[in-house]
Structures are given as structure tokens and as C-alpha cells.
Amino acid sequence: MKLYDYILSPSCYKIRLxxxxxxxxxxxxxxxxxxxxxxxGPELLALNPAGSIPIxxxxxxxxxxxxxxxxxxxxxxxPEWLGxxxxxxxxxxxxxxxxxxxxxxxxxxxxxxxxxxxxxNIEAMQAQGVEALRELEAGLFExxxxxxxxxxxxxxxxxxxxxxxxxxxxxxxxISLDPYPNIRLWLRAIRSLExxxxxxxxxxxxxxxPDPHPAGLEK
Amino acid sequence: MKLYDYILSPSCYKIRLxxxxxxxxxxxxxxxxxxxxxxxGPELLALNPAGSIPIxxxxxxxxxxxxxxxxxxxxxxxPEWLGxxxxxxxxxxxxxxxxxxxxxxxxxxxxxxxxxxxxxNIEAMQAQGVEALRELEAGLFExxxxxxxxxxxxxxxxxxxxxxxxxxxxxxxxISLDPYPNIRLWLRAIRSLExxxxxxxxxxxxxxxPDPHPAGLEK
Lengths: 219, 219
Prior knowledge:
The structure is a homodimer of 219-residue chains. Chain A is α+β, with helices and mostly antiparallel strands and 219 residues long. Chain A is built from 7 helices and 4 strands; from the N terminus they run E-H-E-H-E-E-H-H-H-H-H. Chains A, B: GO terms for molecular function: transferase activity.
């Protein structure tokens, strides 16, 4: 299974993260997204005329939407990541997958503007990003009232993976996460998942127990 | 089940169409989207801070993304509309649901610009709309080679319903459907579905058999 990937892309990281958690081995094909704009070159446009990455190839199947790739990996290797079949769960999963597309536009747009000087109305993207974070905070608060730590149920699903990277990297776009305690708890819960991997800007949880052999005190 | 609805909104029509096909009764609450901008008023912003419609309320559950509402109605009343559980089908369903969000931006954006003078770069939206239609045409052609008339399998799913209205209304945004034979066959296949309902600009298939009692020839 081949992933056309860019290390700094939150959307590509969603796929690497899901695969790592599920134990799926990916054949990573790095794309020179910046500065080379290879995703807009002939080889990749033939695979994905929309000119975006990630792209997953598995035999004849070509998937170009991160939500679809997450669903595919889960269906293959961990169907419990697709949520339960109760109508409310099915609906919540789709609700947050759709929401994740808006995060790409607002939080992702603000980040590209700040990091790569991508043109765009930064104030508008930041304002929409803050609105989206408030919505996410309210959704997670409601889930907490139901005794659930994740967006769809008491366990993580592809909806959590789909929303996680752009939220975790919101500060790169000049948007603070300080006002959102439920979001910060949720980010920690995802970073605690078995099999979690990092990307630049998103790190493992710090070890909270003191180092028994701190370097400065040796001998 | 209450739907906050606007008769001219393709996204609201998705929900009315799915409900009609499934035989689900909706309590329709018309929203004065234009010119009143009621979706941006206090009552609706309290339900959906993103300020968009459709909104579906069912008891405690509030859904604000059309893909999520389609999934909810299908899970309640016609799970076969969610596609099969084979990983490739799960993936294709999500691929086209994600694609439908892009249609809202490009074909929908062009239509709002032409019909309601909504600001925006009309040339860019039309160019992206044409790119999306080419992608859809190619996807439907591949499906036809597999012997399938619809986007995900040989029967229609929520992905077809999600993509249908903005495509059918593309000419409202100044984008012709003439170059896309597979799209035109697919539009006819959806318009032939049992329970199909119209919206302004999207009509039932004409009866092809001659009227046995044409008015002019009576008596």
C-alpha cells in the first residue's frame, strides 16, 4: 500500500498515524510539496486531478481524500475505528468527519499562511478557526457529560484522528488552545493512544515520572 | 424529526430527497435564508454556530452537516443506503462524501454568485467546478466498466444523494453538463429512483410514452 506523503502535511500525518496505530505497513513515497509543488506535477495530477495529497494506492484502488483513506485502513484492519452501528454513532462519525474538512480550510489555511506565506485573508481564517474550536470544545464537553472521552463514543474512531492534527497545530496559525480545556484533555487522550507517532510540532506526552538517573547528578 | 430547511438550498434538498425515498416524515421548518439571513440570527446560531443549514433536530440530537444527516436517516430507515461493509465500498462512500463538500464550494459557490450575486471569484469557482465534474465523469466511467451505475456500488447510496443536487444544478452557475455523458446517465438514474422528489430546477424525468388522452384531441 503506497502513500504519497509530505512530512509537514497534517492531512498526510492523519494517515501515517492511523496506520501506525493499526499496525498497517505503508510504503511511503515522499512528495516535494514545498518548495517543489510536485503535487501539481504531471505524475501526481494523473493520480489526483484535484492536486492534493495524501493519495493512497492499493492495487487498482486510488483514494485521494483523507477521510476515505482513514475509513479504508480501518475497514481493513480495525473496524472498531469506524464507530458502532447505532444511528446516533453513525451520524456523529459523519458529523465530525465533515467538520474535519472545515478545519483544513480554516485552521489549515491560517497555518499555511503563517508558515509558507500562502495568500489568504488571515483574519477571516483565524476567526473561522476560533469558531470551529468553540464548536469542538462544546461537542467534547457534551461527550464528557455522557461519560465519553472521544468525539463519537468512549473509544477513539477515525473521526478523532481526522480532527486531531489541525487542532493540535492551531498555534502554528496563530490560534491559541488555552481557552479550551476539553480540547486539551482530548488532545492528551489521543497522544496517549497505543501506537501513537509524532509529526513535527506534535509530540508524545512527556514522561511525568522523574528520571531516576538525571544526567547532572551522575557519579 | 425537524428539518430547518430552505427550498432553494441544494444541501437542504439532499435531506428532503433522502427522507422522501426512505419514507421518513420530516417536520419542515422553513428558514428565511434569503433575503432574511435567518440562518445567521440568534435562534439558528444557537443550534448551529457555523451558521449553515440544513439542521436536523431529533430529540437531543442536533446534526448540522448534510452528510451526517443523510447517514442518520439511512442508519435509521435504510441501512443499505450506507453501502456494503467491504473495505473498498466503505472507502468509496467516504471518498464521494468528501468530494461532495468540494462541490458545495465550487459548483455551489458559482451558483450563489450567479443567482444571489454572492461575492467570489467566479472564474476560479467555475474552473474548479469543471475540474470536479471531470473527476466525477471519470469515476462514473470506471464504475460503468465494473458494471455499476452508481458511485459506490450497483445501487444508489447516500454518496449519490450527497453529490446529485449541486451537479444537477451546475448550469445555474454557468457550467454546462453537455460534455459529460456518464454524469448525464447518472443524473437520469437518480431521477428514476422510487420516491424521487423535485426541487426548483431539478425535475422528474419526462414521461416518454405518449399521453393516451392529449388535451387538444379530446372529444
